[in-house]
Design a protein that fits this description.
- The chain is 32% helix and 13% strand.
- Helix 2 packs across helix 3.
- The chain has 135 residues and is of the alpha+beta class.
- A three-stranded antiparallel beta sheet has the order 1-3-2, with helices on one face.
- The chain has one domain.
- The N terminus is likely disordered.
- The protein has three helices and three strands.
- This is DUF6146 family protein.
- Pfam families: DUF6146.
Amino acid sequence: MKLFLPLFLIICIISCSVQKERTSTETSDDSSQNDTIRIANDSLEYEIIIFEPGFNTWLVTQKPRGYYNLNYLEQRNRIFVINYNQRVLNPFQYDPNLYPQQINYEYNVDYGYEVNYLLYFYFVYFQQEYGQKLR
């Protein structure tokens, strides 16, 4: 079992930069060790940041954008977020290193396709990487 499970997934309502932005930060020796994806939009005042080793490398092997429609991604994300947040609230039953904090995903907010796409595939990655089931 891994000693250190770096997992930080944050969706928060904050003031953000005007443009959408996607960045990838990599270490010099292994590009899959330090992936960062950030999406921000000032008009909706949301931000999603995913810090997860190997996520960027894994993401390019998945279904392309447009494969799933927005409605499907939103429905799946609602289920995943509910189950994820329930596990955050039960640190004695679920590893707090895997579930460090709740995800603030408001169901009545239109986050758009890109955020829902990345969030959905993050949950797919999380389940595969750590052997979790968030059905």
